[in-house]
């Protein structure tokens, strides 16, 4: 076993601090070296205890979590996992935290809900351990507040006709920022782009709205029965599966509330396999940064069915789990840094 990661828990609720400390301490990879009820106490304990990872609540007294995170990433960068509420306000603030450099987030546990704490514990500990593994490279990773950039010489690719071209993207940890960086470098008349990003309900709608304000393409949260249109990005709704089905010449979104696939709703595997079944003549599939291996096997099936597949490289990925799994399976025709993927997509379309 490698070095045990030191964790500082920051939350204004004594009960939440107790639950988080017990959950994290139960994992042999992790140890809680301290807790803090507010940001000024957290600042002092970071200096005294030198944690590897911080879990951070957004709503706290004296200084809100976003302001504290901004100061932390500027003065003393550390891997941070945000604790979020499942509300529109919580979603907006959490997405802002990811823009500022937080590694990941998790919904606050619903204390007392049957089976919830056990599921929460496994997810939290995996996210904290993954965040801790990034400490050594975090100093090099300045937070990137995305600014729309006009693609250089990226004129709209020629259209092959309705239902004949499709781009599908899978992503997880680090994916919200990677997607923003990728999509802003594509022109506004791309073939339909369908995205399965691991994200909870409420968050997906807010994420789609934030992306829509930043990039040239139109971005929407996918709706059941929606016909895919050129120039539009469809974000899978959190807590549901998104698949693509063929209806004559048209391709449509199928949003269903069925079982998780690879523990995920939405799942990259569910989306990618539906594209294989839809028999789209020209498919470009991209696997971006993410923890785990969801979608890797389905990406291989896409490649075998004739799709051109691209995996984000390790250097530019926040977590090289999903793209790394795809590469190991031989599912990627191309392995590319994030800033090279837009050009690759445009070249394949032309």
Question: In words, what does this structure look like?
Answer:
This protein has helices spanning 14-25, 39-49, 65-75, 88-100, 116-132, 135-138, 175-183, 203-214, 268-278, 296-304, 322-328, 341-349; strands at 5-10, 30-36, 53-57, 80-84, 104-107, 165-171, 193-197, 218-221, 232-235, 241-247, 250-256, 282-287, 308-312, 334-336. It is of the alpha/beta class. It has 2 domains: 5-138, Response regulator (Rossmann fold, 3-Layer(aba) Sandwich), CATH 3.40.50; 165-349, Methylesterase CheB, C-terminal domain (Rossmann fold), CATH 3.40.50.180. Helix 9 runs parallel beside helix 10 and helix 10 crosses helix 11. The longest helix is centred in the middle third of the chain and has 17 residues, at 116-132. The radius of gyration is 20 Å and the shape is elongated. Residues 139-154 have low confidence and may be disordered.
Question: What does the secondary structure layout of this molecule look like, with pairings?
Answer:
Elements: E1 5-10, H1 14-25, E2 30-36, H2 39-49, E3 53-57, H3 65-75, E4 80-84, H4 88-100, E5 104-107, H5 116-132, H6 135-138, E6 165-171, H7 175-183, E7 193-197, H8 203-214, E8 218-221, E9 232-235, E10 241-247, E11 250-256, H9 268-278, E12 282-287, H10 296-304, E13 308-312, H11 322-328, E14 334-336, H12 341-349
Parallel strand pairs: 1-2, 1-3, 3-4, 4-5, 6-7, 6-12, 7-9, 8-9, 12-13, 13-14
Antiparallel strand pairs: 10-11
